[in-house]
């Protein structure tokens, strides 16, 4: 009998320690927070600790601690951020700031974020943000800014300058006809004019369609499945089919990422339509130094958009509403998004400096700088063609077929219309 | 006996509590969620709005979900037959007294030890890559230009490249289960059959097959579970896109619906929950069918 009582007691003790185990880890972390340097904040990062972006951020965090005595706990979550952050915020996890794609940060988690205009220095910060990015960010927040954008990107055609020279191309094309001429010259010089990856094939069709009718109309066509009734939808497909017929695409296009873009590094293909991280990726993947040139996707006859419109985006820091260190978190975020750390970030991964006062762009992408200044219209990713997850794979598959030459423009629009 | 009951209660209570909190609560919540409009998976219940069977109707009417179901069924049936036949063949060969049995068994099982992400990267980069891949180089060396040009990662080949790679890794696992089943059969049966003049094929058909019916049931169960939860391979094949017509499966569809994708911030946890419930129902139906069709208790040995 005694034994039984002992075992019952032991069991109870075991359960109790289990429960205690759960509880103590929570209180433990907040305790150590207050005992260290007085203040501490938690930052969930979308980078992995080994990435160059993480190194710059870590440096900034160390400098910030030295300056203010506030220690920043950085949790490197990587790109899983989009699956983690919503649940974490809902559960009241102790997070002061986090980052993710700025569109996702603002649109998915806005209710948990601080309106930055309530913080000190926000006006000053806004003057450092590129207008086209600022407008876009504010448009998602009903005119208020909910994220600190950094690591900006733009999109256009990246090409190997040496090949253009060899082919005798002196001016970059601005219209579709000029573009076809340039392609012919490059082809005559013995290179594949255009290459692409299958994951970004939608960009080509999206851009071409948007050049005709603008992003709003593209989205309207997309959302209503009006592929067969909007004549430009077929016109854009015909233009791409023209490129295919004339043999302007690489015979491997569209290739599995990153084989398509790598063809430029291997000296086989000349141009690729993609975002400004591409030059860095190509150089990293193929180990060759390519001197990259840039031009915006050409305008088309009777079209509404031109060089002033392109896909732009950024990452964005969100400051959590429940945080008791909003101001400090904001100061840290702006420290990374502006000034020296922004410049360091830009040069370490060849990205565009987010701070308008940092006018020195890394060499690899500096060719896009003059165009960025003139840009007034921001397209969404793939001009919105990837904004419906149920439909993106269908459109990707059909654009891939179009570029492979396995479908006609008529069948292409019909297939899109049928799938919706 | 009375004290014993007390002990049972004491030891079971914590486990039961954990089961209820960690399993039962989420299951019930998911079932309810599938009938509501819910945006984020962790949104409080007060924000849910009742939608009846709306989520299910939306799902069944979505082309992409239909595609994902077709893909899953194709993997289940075609892959299932291929894997079971090859695994059984290997199992029979390895139990027939070949030399270095342990070595072959280990070789065939190895793909199961390697992480799925690593092994699919290996397939994508080293075998199917259209510039450096094994198949490309092999056909090129043979001078078969047309075959060397095949793009295994795009278009009509993509699904098959996925299926081949996945089945390659699955064979070893099922082979081991079959081996353990075959080894349980007493050797006397085969001896007696040999004396009676039955050849190997007849022995397989009349002794081995009937006696490992129960093992088949186990294999079917494991296969069903792994195919209904088919996720990593599909994601690897679609990468860096969130999903792809040729390789999307219902679980990938669910993941994208619940968490959104690169280009789309729209999230719908209600639809995601409905996918989960549908998958659970499919598993239950298959279990039921297998139990009705394969009776393993009519033979004793």
Automatic annotation (TrEMBL), chain A:
Signal peptide positions on this chain: 1-19
InterPro entries per record: Bact_solute-bd_prot1 (IPR050490), SBP (IPR006059)
Gene3D superfamilies (UniProt xref): Periplasmic binding protein-like II
Transport among keywords: yes
SUPFAM superfamilies according to UniProt: Periplasmic binding protein-like II
Keywords: Signal, Transport
Superkingdom to which the source organism belongs: Bacteria
Family: Belongs to the bacterial solute-binding protein 1 family.
Name of the protein this chain belongs to: Extracellular solute-binding protein
Automatic annotation (TrEMBL), chain B:
Keyword Acyltransferase: no
Membrane topology type: Multi-pass membrane protein
Annotated ABC transmembrane type-1 domain residues: 69-290
Transmembrane segments: 7-28, 73-94, 106-128, 159-179, 214-233, 271-294
Subcellular location field: Cell membrane
Keywords: Cell membrane, Membrane, Transmembrane, Transmembrane helix, Transport
Classification via SUPFAM superfamilies: MetI-like
Record InterPro entries: ABC_transporter_permease (IPR051393), MetI-like (IPR000515), MetI-like_sf (IPR035906)
Family: Belongs to the binding-protein-dependent transport system permease family.
Name under which the protein is recorded: Sugar ABC transporter permease
The species this protein was found in: Claveliimonas monacensis
């Amino acid at each position: 009998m005694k034994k039984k009582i002992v075992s019952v007691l032991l069991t109870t003790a075991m359960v109790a320690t289990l429960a205690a185990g759960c509880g103590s880890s929570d209180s433990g972390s907040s305790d150590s927070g207050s005992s260290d340097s007085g203040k501490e904040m938690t930052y969930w990062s979308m980078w992995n600790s080994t990435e160059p972006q993480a190194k710059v951020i870590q440096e900034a965090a160390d400098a910030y601690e030295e300056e203010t005595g506030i220690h920043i706990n950085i949790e490197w979550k990587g790109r899983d951020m989009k699956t983690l952050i919503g649940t974490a915020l809902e559960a009241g996890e102790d997070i002061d700031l986090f980052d993710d794609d700025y569109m996702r940060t603002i649109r998915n988690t806005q209710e948990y974020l601080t309106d930055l205009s309530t913080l000190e220095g926000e006006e000053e910060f806004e003057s450092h943000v590129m207008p086209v990015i600022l407008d876009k960010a504010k448009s998602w927040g009903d005119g208020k800014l909910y994220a600190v954008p950094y690591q900006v990107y733009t999109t256009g055609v990246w090409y190997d300058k040496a090949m253009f020279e060899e082919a005798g191309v002196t001016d970059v094309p601005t219209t579709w006809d000029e573009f076809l001429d340039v392609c012919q010259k490059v082809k005559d010089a013995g290179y594949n004019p255009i290459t692409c990856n299958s994951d970004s094939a939608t960009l080509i069709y999206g851009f071409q369609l948007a050049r005709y009718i603008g992003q709003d109309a593209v989205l309207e066509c997309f959302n209503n499945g009006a592929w067969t009734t909007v004549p430009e939808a077929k016109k854009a497909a015909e233009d791409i089919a023209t490129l295919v017929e004339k043999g302007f695409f690489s015979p491997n296009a569209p290739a599995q990422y990153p084989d398509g873009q790598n063809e430029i590094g291997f000296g086989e293909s000349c141009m690729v339509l993609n975002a400004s991280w591409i030059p860095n990726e190509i150089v990293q993947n193929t180990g060759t130094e390519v001197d990259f040139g840039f031009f915006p996707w050409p305008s088309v006859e009777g079209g509404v958009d031109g060089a002033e419109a392109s896909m732009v985006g950024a990452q964005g820091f969100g400051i959590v509403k429940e945080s008791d260190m909003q101001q400090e978190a904001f100061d840290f975020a702006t420290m990374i998004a502006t000034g020296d750390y922004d410049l360091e970030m830009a040069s370490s991964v060849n990205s565009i400096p987010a701070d308008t006062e940092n006018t020195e762009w890394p060499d690899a992408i500096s060719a896009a700088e003059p165009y960025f200044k003139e840009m007034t219209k921001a397209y969404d990713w793939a001009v919105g063609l990837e904004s419906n997850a149920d439909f993106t794979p269908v459109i990707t598959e059909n654009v891939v077929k179009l570029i492979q030459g396995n479908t006609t423009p008529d069948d292409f629009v019909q297939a899109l219309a049928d799938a919706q | 006996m009375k004290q014993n009951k007390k002990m049972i209660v004491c030891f079971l209570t914590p486990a039961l509590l954990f089961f209820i909190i960690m399993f039962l609560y989420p299951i019930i919540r998911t079932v309810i969620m599938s009938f509501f409009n819910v945006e984020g998976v962790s949104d409080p219940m007060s924000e849910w709005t009742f939608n009846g069977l709306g989520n299910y109707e939306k799902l069944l009417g979505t082309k992409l979900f239909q595609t994902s179901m077709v893909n899953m069924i194709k993997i289940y049936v075609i892959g299932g037959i291929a894997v079971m036949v090859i695994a059984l063949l290997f199992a029979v060969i390895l139990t027939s007294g070949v030399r270095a049995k342990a070595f072959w068994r280990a070789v065939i099982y190895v793909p199961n030890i390697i992480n799925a992400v690593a092994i699919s990267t290996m397939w994508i980069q080293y075998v199917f890559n259209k510039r450096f891949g094994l198949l490309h180089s092999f056909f090129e060396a043979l001078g078969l230009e047309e075959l060397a040009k095949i793009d295994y990662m795009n278009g009509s080949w993509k699904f098959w490249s996925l299926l081949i790679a996945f089945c390659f890794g699955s064979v070893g696992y099922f082979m081991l289960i079959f081996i353990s089943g075959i080894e349980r059969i007493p050797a006397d049966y085969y001896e007696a059959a040999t004396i009676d003049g039955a050849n190997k094929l007849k022995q397989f058909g009349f002794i081995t097959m009937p006696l490992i019916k129960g093992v088949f049931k186990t294999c079917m169960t494991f296969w069903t579970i792994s195919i209904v939860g088919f996720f990593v391979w599909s994601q690897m094949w679609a990468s860096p896109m969130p999903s792809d017509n040729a390789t999307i499966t219902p679980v990938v569809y669910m993941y994208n619906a619940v968490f959104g994708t690169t280009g789309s911030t729209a999230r719908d946890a209600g639809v995601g929950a409905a996918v989960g419930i549908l998958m659970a129902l499919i598993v239950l139906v298959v279990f039921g069918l297998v139990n009705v069709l394969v009776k393993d208790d009519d033979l004793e040995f």
